[in-house]
Specification:
Order of helices and strands: EHHHHHHHEEHH
Radius of gyration: 19 Å
Largest sheet: 3 strands, antiparallel
Structural class: mainly alpha
Number of domains: 1
Number of helices: 9
Shape: globular
Distance between the termini: 52 Å
């Protein structure tokens, strides 16, 4: 079940393992598939997809945590202190939705879809983002960074590298490849139009070859 607490914090690793770093890939694929199905142009698709991964921007403090010891500076703990606290809640949802809508063609659609994929990100984190040990649970502070109450936590949280998460990611990747030729743009286009212009024709060629093979 989900546990609601008003003041108790669960300790977890401040520096993530490699599997935790790969989590945004799953969020990316899931958000892109929803965006590709519900938007009618590549720009809005890109914006909605970004809304599904931007909650993890509050984990960028990890860069400082890694770099400062190398520079001989006082160690920082920004990742453990702020990840899942600054943007993983209502405040982050509003900021991200407004920001994405500002650049959208269909602003109301992008606003609503951004809120949808943002909260889907939170749900996925609540269900399947546990670390290596049973105690390494990741809570959601929905009213952070203004309030730590309530803290949402599920004791049945899957490990981030659990077979369920791996299977989900593989399936999402396969569906994303399948959808791209028909849409005319792919998940690669979220970050690079030039890369997308290379990837999509290749996928369209493969799809045409498979159709000819099975139809003949």
């Amino acid at each position: 079940m989900v546990w609601f607490s008003a003041g108790h914090l669960i300790s977890f690793r401040e520096i993530p393992n490699p599997e935790r770093i790969m989590a945004p890939v799953t969020h990316l694929l899931m958000s892109w598939m929803i965006a590709a199905k519900t938007t009618d142009n590549s720009r809005d698709c890109r914006l909605v997809t970004l809304a599904g991964i931007l909650p993890d921007a509050d984990g960028l403090g990890l860069i400082a945590d890694i770099v400062t010891p190398w520079l001989g500076l006082k160690p920082t703990h920004y990742y453990g202190r702020y990840h899942h606290y600054l943007l993983h809640g209502a405040f982050g949802a509003v900021v991200v939705a407004v920001l994405m809508a500002a650049f959208a063609r269909n602003r109301w659609r992008v606003t609503l879809l951004s809120l949808l994929v943002f909260h889907l990100h939170l749900l996925c984190d609540l269900v399947g983002s546990r670390g290596p040990s049973p105690e390494d649970l990741w809570p959601i502070f929905y009213f952070g960074p203004f309030d730590k109450e309530p803290m949402w936590l599920w004791h049945g949280q899957w490990r981030l590298d659990a077979w369920r998460n791996r299977l989900l990611t593989v399936c999402l990747f396969g569906f994303a490849l399948f959808m791209a030729p028909a849409k005319g743009y792919s998940v690669a286009g979220v970050f690079s139009s030039r890369l997308d212009a290379v990837v999509v024709p290749v996928l369209q060629k493969w799809r045409s070859a498979l159709q000819r093979r099975f139809s003949g």
